[in-house]
Amino acid sequence: MQKILVLNGPNLNMLGIREPEIYGTGTYRDLVSLIEQEAALLGVSVECFQSNHEGALVDKIQEAYGNVDGIILNPAAYTHTSLAIADAIKAVGIPTVEVHLSDVSKRESYRQISYVRDCCQKTIIGKGFAGYIEALHDLTEKH
Ligand code: CA2
Questions:
Q1: What CA–CA distance (Å, rounded) separates 91 from 85?
Q2: 3-state secondary structure the chain
Q3: How far is the CA of 15 from the centre of ligand 1 (A)?
Q4: Contact between 97 and 122 (Cβ < 8 Å)
Q5: How far is CA 117 from each of CA 14, 44, 125, rounded to the nearest angstrom?
Q6: Residue with CA nearest ligand 1 atom 12
Q7: Which of the residues 23, 78, 115, 132 is marked catalytic?
């Protein structure tokens, strides 16, 4: 069975609590339930992991080496700062899709920079929770 790892970065555990106009009203638990339901329909195994710590995200990416077939990655604010997360994705060589809930292209200029974009096969922005579902389909498509 294919295994997909979903990684969410800092503050995404706060979803639904503030800034609903940017990130929607669904909670992090709602997001995990949605992803788990879709994974069950697709017949793939999924693990969702959220951390506020850069090193914990890097550790999780390294642990995925040899164990995971695809990564769905929303590094949150680390998107715009973390060479360490980008290097980890490059190091493990696992197909990865970058997802952002909001349309970062229409927000502050510092959100236009993504350190991880170049090591991801695709970037999905501005689709809310549906972006994660699209990424799940992309990574599990049978060729
Ligand atoms: O749009 C996205 O998914 C982001 O990765 C979300 C990050 C932001 O720094 C990126 O530029 C774009 C922030 C996530 C913070 O989530 C919150 C949740 C509830 C309340 C406040 C922030």
A1: 10
A2: CCEEEEEECCCHHHCCCCCHHHHCCCCHHHHHHHHHHHHHHHCCEEEEEECCCHHHHHHHHHHHCCCCCEEEEECHHHHHCCHHHHHHHHHHCCCEEEEECCCHHHCCHHHCCCCCHHHCCEEEECCCCHHHHHHHHHHHCCC
A3: 8
A4: yes
A5: 24, 25, 11
A6: 76
A7: 23
| 75 touches 117 (CB < 8 A) | no
Q: Whose CA is nearest to atom 10 of ligand 1?
A: 76
Residues linked to residue 47 through DSSP beta bridges, in sequence order: 5
Candidate list 28, 65, 100, 115, residue with the active-site label: 100
Question: In this predicted model, what pLDDT tens digit does every residue of 37-85 receive, in sequence order?
Answer: 999 999 999 999 999 999 999 999 999 999 999 999 999 999 999 999 9
- 90 pLDDT more than 60: yes
* Residue of 6, 8, 12 with the most ligand 1 atoms within 8 Å of its CB, for mutation: 12
